[in-house]
Design a protein that fits this description.
Helices cover about 45% and strands about 15% of the residues. The chain has a 6-stranded mixed beta sheet. Strands 9-6-7-8-14 form a 5-stranded parallel beta sheet, with helices on both faces. Strands 2-1-3 form a 3-stranded antiparallel beta sheet. The protein has helices spanning about 15-20, 50-65, 75-80, 110-125, 140-150, 170-175, 190-205, 205-210, 220-225, 230-240, 255-265, 285-290, 315-320, 325-330, 340-350, 360-370, 370-375, 390-400, 405-410, 425-430; strands spanning about 5, 10-15, 30, 85-90, 95-100, 130-135, 155-165, 180-190, 210-215, 245-250, 270-280, 330-335, 380-385, 420-425. It is of the alpha/beta class and about 425 residues long. It is globular, with a radius of gyration of 20 Å. The protein is built from 20 helices and 14 strands.
Length: about 425
């Protein structure tokens, strides 16, 4: 299997090189040069994380075939998928459920992809002569997952860039408490500035001459491909139990998680509708409704990890669906404001006794706005992307009850934190590195 840039079908590279480079030489994102097909009936629907790891191996195997990492696939998936992704029905008719993706070390869905990428890159560095510098821009959750996944890995240094003052206190502790081979930079700007800095670093001759650079954002194929596994798992469970495909409502920012779901469906997973639930950063909903792409500065919201005004993975979706009309036939998108997000947290806690993080609440509100006949005739899964304890400052006043802190998060508050503030320009980043 080979991979090519979204901007040019040639040249093509292998899986290991795509992971190590992160971004293609022309600035594009790597996508498969061909799409394998699977027969869903031959894949096992996992009920626990051991079987989820096995399913991930089967899903990823064609993409790694012939690559230096192929013999390591079993070990890498075992390391990455060592916690569950449970699916819980919210109503007796089993028409509405939640796919919980927050049971990993940093209580966010990004733990799956970050741990797989760390396992892969660590193996690729065994014979390297100089450290690999991993740059990651984060609006909250990505940086924590990447820092946890790579912390202590020999031959790899991690630099986490996050927007100063625009992440929750719990998220900031996750970003800044590591030390060792992980450094954190509070950028005086927004997430889009952090993401721009990472892309500019790849094009900076001085930085590329000094470091071997890669990215751990969802622009990196090694972050995104593993995420297709839990969509396979959930959709297979629904199909086996009910004889129907699953539909997903996905909290969406940089579109990595949404792209993983679209890719899983393209590979043959029994998935029907895909709804992209955005907050007030409505670049994608506007693109689908108006037909014109207008990237813009991001807007700060309660669901900070989704505060993206120029989503990178739209380039991957556009490689499959080259205009708004084509993409509109594959997904739908809706924008939810903070007032509605607060209302949904209150309403679903009262109705289901479920506590949503603000990102999951955006998806829950998007589901509530679907036409009644659409909700009644599908098997819908709201994708819960983060544990609500990461956003206690927002959630607790809305529900009037405390939110217990998972043990894995609580341990991080015992660690000292350290960060360096920098301006949002590549020269400042160059000096800091």
């Amino acid at each position: 299997m080979h991979f090519a840039s979204t901007r040019n079908p040639q040249p093509q590279v292998g899986f290991s090189k795509a992971l190590t480079q992160g971004l293609a030489d022309d600035g594009g994102l790597y996508v498969p040069s061909e799409w394998p097909s699977y027969e869903p009936s031959r894949l096992e629907a996992p009920e626990n994380h051991e079987v989820l790891a096995s399913l991930a191996r089967e899903v990823l195997r064609p993409f790694i075939a012939g690559d230096a990492l192929e013999p390591e696939l079993e070990a890498m998936t075992r390391e990455a998928f060592n916690f569950p992704a449970p699916q819980i029905w919210l109503d007796s008719s089993q028409r509405l459920g939640v796919l919980e993706l927050f049971h990993g070390p940093t209580a966010a869905f990004k733990d799956f992809g970050a741990r797989f990428l760390a396992a892969a890159l660590t193996r690729l560095r065994r014979a390297a002569s100089r450290p690999l510098q991993v740059l990651v821009a984060t609006s909250g959750d990505t940086g924590g997952a990447v820092a946890a996944a790579f912390h202590g890995h020999h031959g790899i240094e991690v630099s986490v860039l996050y927007p100063k003052g625009l992440v929750s206190p719990t998220q900031e502790q996750q970003l800044t408490c590591w030390g060792g081979n992980v450094r954190s930079f509070a950028v005086r700007g927004r997430f889009d500035d952090c993401q721009r800095l990472v892309k500019q670093a790849f094009a900076d001759a001085a930085l590329r001459g000094r470091f071997e650079l890669t990215s751990a954002n969802s622009i990196n194929l090694g972050r995104l491909l593993p995420q297709t596994a839990y969509y396979w798992a959930a959709s297979l469970r629904v199909a086996r139990a009910h004889g129907e495909p699953a539909s997903f409502v996905i909290p969406s920012g940089n579109l990595g998680n949404a792209t993983a779901c679209v890719w899983a469906r393209k590979l043959g997973a029994p998935i029907a509708a895909i709804v992209l639930a955005h907050n007030a950063n409505r670049t994608v909903p506007d693109y689908l409704s108006e037909g014109t792409l207008r990237p813009r500065a991001s807007v700060a919201t309660l669901s900070s990890a989704m505060d993206v005004g120029d989503p990178s993975n739209l380039e991957r979706l556009s490689a499959l669906y080259p205009d708004a009309a084509a993409l509109r036939g594959a997904v739908s998108a809706v924008s939810i404001d903070d007032e509605a997000t607060r209302g949904r947290i209150r309403a679903d806690f009262a109705h289901y006794r479920r506590v949503w993080c603000p990102h999951t609440a955006v998806a829950a509100e998007a589901y509530a706005r679907l036409a009644p006949e659409v909700r009644a005739h599908g098997r819908w899964l709201i994708v819960a992307t983060a544990h609500p304890a990461k956003f206690r400052e927002i959630v607790v006043p809305l529900i009037g009850e405390s939110v217990p802190m998972p043990e894995n998060l609580a341990r991080l508050f015992d660690r000292p934190s350290s960060t360096t503030e920098i301006e949002a320009d590549v020269e400042a980043l160059r000096r800091a590195l």
